[in-house]
Structure formats: C-alpha cells, structure tokens
Inverse folding.
C-alpha cells in the first residue's frame, strides 16, 4: 500500500469519527433541549404498569388453577394491549394523563381481582354481562375473601402502591418544552401505535390453528378456554366483541335452526312412554351433590332410595354460561343451556318458553310451583321462574311463622306449613331447590362455621373428626342434612299416602365447588358426572348406562308422563332408541359410551372396538351444531316465531 493511500485511509477514518461525534453531539443537544426521556417517560410508566398487572394476574390465575395456564405465553400476549393502553394515555395532555390513568389502573386492578375471586370460588371466569347478577354472589363474598391467601393481598397491595407512585410521577413531572415538530411526532406516533396495537387486540386469533379452539374463541363458549388462548386484556375485549356479535348472529335468520330440527330424528315411543301418566311429580334439586358423597356412611337414605330407583349412572351436569346452580336449573326446565354471554337470571324473562317443563305440565292439568329457601330477589327468581312457566316462586320462609333457624332442606318434611303447601294439591308438579350442602364451607368473618354445619354436626357426631374441620369435612357433614331430608320426606309421604301417586326426581345441580377447583380435561369431566335418579313406589329398579346430561331431563320426563313432546329441544329422551347418548361441555370436550374426547383427541376409551376419525368428527360436529343452534334459539327468541 502506498503512503498516499495510507494517508487517505487515516483521513477517511478521522472524517467518519468526526461525523459520528457530530451526530452524537446533535442527538445529545436535541435530547437535552427537548428532554426526550422526560417526554416518553409517561409511556414507559404506563406500559410497564399494565404489563406488570397482566403478568401478576396470569401468575395468580396459574396458581389458583394448579398450573393450568402458560404464564410466560400470557405475558407475551399482553404486550399489544399494554402498548395500546400506554399509547392512548400518551396521546392525552399531562392533566388528562393524570386524570385518566388512575381511573384506568383502578378499573383493571378491581376487574382482575374480581376475576381471581370468582376463580377462587368456582374455578371459572365471569363475563361482563354477568356483572349485573354479581349482587347474588355478595352473600358468599366473606368466605371467598377470607379464603384468599395473604400473598395475593400483598401483590395487589403492591400494584396499588405502584399505581399511586406512577400518579405522583405524572403530577410532579414537568412538561418539557416542545416545538411543533416534536408535538406532531408525538401525536402521530402515539396515534399510529395505539391503532396498530388496538387492532392486534381486536383481531387477535389463537396461535394454535385448531378448528375447535377457533370455535371456542370466536363464539366464546367457554371463558376459561378463551383466557388460556389470550390474556386478561384480550379476554376483556373478546368478551365485549362476542357479546355484540352473538346478538348480530342471532338476528340474521332462522334457517339454521329450522334446518337443525328438520334433520333431527323424530321421537319414537318406547317402553317407558306414559309409565307415570297422571302421577304427581316432585323434583328435588340436590345442591352441590357429587358421586363421591353418595356413600352409606354419609348418605344412607339417598343410597337406599337410589337402589330402588331408575338411576342414570352416566348423568352429567355441565357448567355452561350461567352460574352452575341456575345454569343447570335452566337446562332441566327448558331443555336448553345458557350461552356464556347470556345472564340467564335477568335476561330469561325476555325469552318465550311455551314448551318448558312447567308449561307442558300445566297444559296437562297440573299445578306447577317452585320452592327454595332464598328470597325471590336471589337470581331474580320471582321473574325467572315465571319465565320457566311456574305459577309462582315461593320462599320457604314465607310459608310459616316458625323461625327456620338452620335453613336446611329438612324443613320441607319437618314443617307442617311447608309440607301441606307443597303436597295439598290434586295434581302437582313441584320443583324444590335444595340448600344444605351449599358453601359456606369455611369460617365466616366472625370465625364461625354456618349454623347448618353445627346442626348437622350435632346430629351426626360420628362424621366430625376435628373442632376445626377443613372445608371438605364441612361439606361432607352438611350433605347429611339433605340425606336426612330425603329419608324423612319419603317416610311422611308414605304415612299420608302421597307417595303412592308421586314420582320424585332427585338430581344434582353440580358437584361440590371444592372438587371443581383447579380441574381440567378428563378430571373436570368426571367431576361433572353427578347423581340423578327417579323414584316411584313399586317401580322396578334400573341402572341406565346411556350417557346423558341435564338438557335431556325435560324430554325424558315428558315421555315418562305421557305428555306430548313438541320436538324443539336440544336435549333428547334418554330412553329413545334413536338417541345414542352423549354429554358435551362449553370447551368442546364430550363423552359418549365409547370414549371421552378432550382437547381435540380421545382421552379415554370405553370400548374394545376401533373408534374411527369419522366417529369423533361426527360427534364433534354435532357438539358445534348443538352449541350454535342452542344460542341462536335464545338470541332469536325462536319459540315466539313458531305457530301457536
């Protein structure tokens, strides 16, 4: 290399170095003059806060659900929503940021904490449409709050402190001087950022390209599954989005519903048709009863009654859109499930149900009444039960001057006023909603267990093993009150002759919520398999192995009582040979006598024969059709469109 070339090279390097220094100096000057860091500091604060909150919620939900969720994945998914929120706030002037940020932060703190409380109590997430019935949950709020671990309170305390600290930073920070170009850059940049990230949240699709997951997400059939595929913020947006679009889908036309019923096989009479014709019907809804509690040690009377009954050994009570008690109450009474974005207790009054269980029995000349311990405002039962076709809803406390101190199921047999009210009619169809085995399972704010527990413990001391029993033991002891009621009720009906002409359906609304906590997959399905049996004096006992669920009870009862089936039910008569029998769940899982299908694959097999893809595809498609048509029937008020 020549000397001249070497000098040019050195000079070139020197020139480049000088240029870089000038650029850095210019950047430093602009940074100091316009205080870039102070300008973008609010954006950083907003973004980091919302990301921390979303990550904390994901971590705690993961803890509550026993590792069901991928915390790292959910945190990643939160980034677009956090950036959108930060960009939106960044667009506002300083006073606007200081005013809006604490409101937004407080909303998300309260919303996420409320979701955790719901998860602690029944292992699910609520939807915005169900907030209006949140007052019903306040009765049990003290036990839920007491059951929240201390570290969750600490984490949310830290989040509140961080929100307060961010607010102080916003208020005390000075606003740097900005020329027109800087303001324009900030405004346009933030607006574009907000719109881009907002669109990512709105049009978010699960990464896993799977048809059943896409159906769950797009139709919001299962709140837990939607959250697993998104995050706290996207879940909220999808909640609102699906609530709106579901109503739009329902308004399109009725063709899909008509096609569904046109292709549904007609009901055929069978050996059980009319066997209970003109008899009375009493439905006893067993609160929080599961298969494991049905033992001779805990429930000897119910076990004895079941041995002399028609017992549905594979009966499921799926948890759908509404809270589990009212959701399955609705299914038994209407043959439909509540969609996840339908607050059944408050909205059911807007839906015509001329073919409900009570309406059909009333048309056949029966009186139809419903009884429960709670007042008529709970679950809006004064109105919802009328929508089901009952003449009236009656709180047991309004039937007697006696003080129902322990509020247990046994009062329907023990109290003369209540018993005579329920059984004095000529032909009746009565629906009794149980109470005894419901939580509170823990200590209340005063450090006491429920009065029902102390009463049950006094009656059955052999089941009490500790002065400070755990929740599972409390649940077991409470269940004995319902068992006592069953034995006393049949004894009294036998003595006065009422039992000769009365059929009693004992059916659980759901399993104990303690058992449902943190379950998923096959385990979750098995927990939702609950007791269901029909007792009638002198009937030949049977064990029905066909898989069935709560929406099948209405057409089954109509068949057994010889009452005409209109044919417009999603459920089926269990005894119909044309119905192969299956139960399905909002997360698209299902179970038949051949297999259990979980997360898009066979989880358990119950037959030696080959199970083809054609079979699983056919059942899965039927599940999708059932869910879609079920929702459309409610959204379109379908029964009102039929000819009288």
């Amino acid at each position: 290399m020549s000397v001249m070339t070497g000098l040019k090279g050195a000079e070139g390097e020197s020139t480049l170095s000088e240029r870089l220094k000038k650029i850095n100096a210019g950047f430093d000057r602009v940074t100091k003059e316009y205080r870039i860091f102070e300008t973008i500091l609010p954006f950083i604060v907003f973004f980091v806060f919302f990301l921390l909150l979303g990550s904390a919620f994901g971590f705690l939900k993961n803890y509550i659900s026993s590792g069901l969720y991928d915390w790292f994945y959910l945190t990643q998914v939160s980034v677009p929503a956090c950036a959108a929120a930060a960009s939106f706030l960044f667009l506002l002037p300083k006073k606007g940021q200081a005013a809006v940020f604490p409101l937004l932060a407080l909303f998300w703190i309260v919303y996420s904490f409320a979701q955790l409380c719901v998860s602690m109590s029944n292992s699910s997430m609520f939807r915005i449409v169900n907030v209006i019935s949140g007052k019903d949950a306040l009765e049990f709020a003290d036990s839920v709050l007491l059951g929240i671990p201390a570290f969750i309170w600490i984490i949310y305390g830290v989040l509140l402190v961080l929100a307060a600290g961010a607010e102080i930073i916003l208020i005390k920070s000075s606003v740097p001087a900005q020329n027109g170009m800087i303001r324009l850059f900030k405004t346009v940049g933030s607006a574009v950022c907000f719109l881009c990230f907002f669109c990512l949240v709105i049009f978010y699709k699960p990464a896993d390209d799977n048809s059943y997951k896409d159906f769950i997400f797009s139709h919001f059939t299962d709140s837990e599954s939607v959250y697993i595929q998104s995050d706290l913020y996207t879940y909220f947006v999808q909640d609102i989005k699906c609530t709106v679009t579901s109503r739009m889908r329902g308004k399109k036309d009725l063709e899909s519903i008509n096609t569904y019923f046109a292709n549904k096989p007609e009901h055929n009479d069978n050996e059980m048709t009319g066997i209970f014709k003109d008899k009375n019907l009493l439905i006893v809804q067993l609160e929080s009863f599961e298969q494991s509690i049905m033992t001779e040690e805990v429930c000897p009377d119910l076990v004895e009654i079941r041995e002399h009954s028609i017992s549905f050994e594979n009966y499921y009570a799926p948890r759908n859109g509404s809270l589990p008690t009212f959701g399955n109450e609705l299914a038994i009474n209407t043959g439909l499930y509540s969609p996840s974005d339908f607050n059944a207790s408050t909205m059911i009054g807007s839906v015509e149900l001329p073919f409900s269980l009570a309406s059909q029995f009333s048309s056949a000349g029966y009186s139809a009444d419903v009884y429960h311990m709670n007042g008529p405002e709970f679950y809006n039962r004064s109105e919802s039960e009328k929508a089901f076709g009952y003449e009236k809803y009656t709180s047991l406390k309004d039937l007697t001057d006696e003080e129902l101190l322990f509020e247990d199921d046994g009062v329907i047999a023990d109290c003369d006023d209540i018993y005579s009210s329920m059984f004095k009619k000529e032909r009746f169809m009565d629906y009794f909603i149980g109470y005894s085995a419901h939580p509170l399972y823990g200590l209340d704010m005063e450090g006491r267990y429920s009065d029902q527990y102390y009463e049950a413990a006094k009656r059955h001391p052999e089941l009490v093993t500790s002065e400070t029993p755990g929740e599972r033991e409390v649940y077991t002891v409470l269940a004995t009150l319902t068992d006592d009621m069953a034995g006393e009720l049949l004894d009294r009906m036998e003595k006065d002759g009422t039992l000769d002409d009365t059929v009693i359906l004992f059916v659980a609304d759901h399993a104990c919520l303690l058992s449902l906590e943190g379950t998923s997959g096959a385990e979750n399905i098995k927990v939702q398999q609950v007791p269901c049996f029909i007792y009638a004096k002198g009937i030949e006992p049977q064990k029905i192995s066909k898989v069935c669920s709560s929406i099948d009870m209405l057409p089954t009862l109509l068949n057994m009582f010889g009452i005409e089936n209109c044919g417009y039910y999603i459920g089926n008569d269990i005894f119909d040979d044309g119905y192969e029998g299956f139960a399905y769940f909002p997360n698209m899982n299902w179970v038949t006598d051949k297999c259990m299908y979980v997360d898009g694959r066979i989880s358990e097999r119950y037959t030696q024969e080959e199970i083809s893809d054609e079979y699983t595809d056919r059942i899965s498609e039927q599940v999708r059709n059932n869910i879609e048509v079920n929702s459309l029937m409610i959204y379109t008020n379908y029964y009102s469109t039929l000819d009288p």
In short: The mean pLDDT is 87. The chain has three domains: 1-29, 35-209, 273-570. The first helix runs from residue 3 to 34.
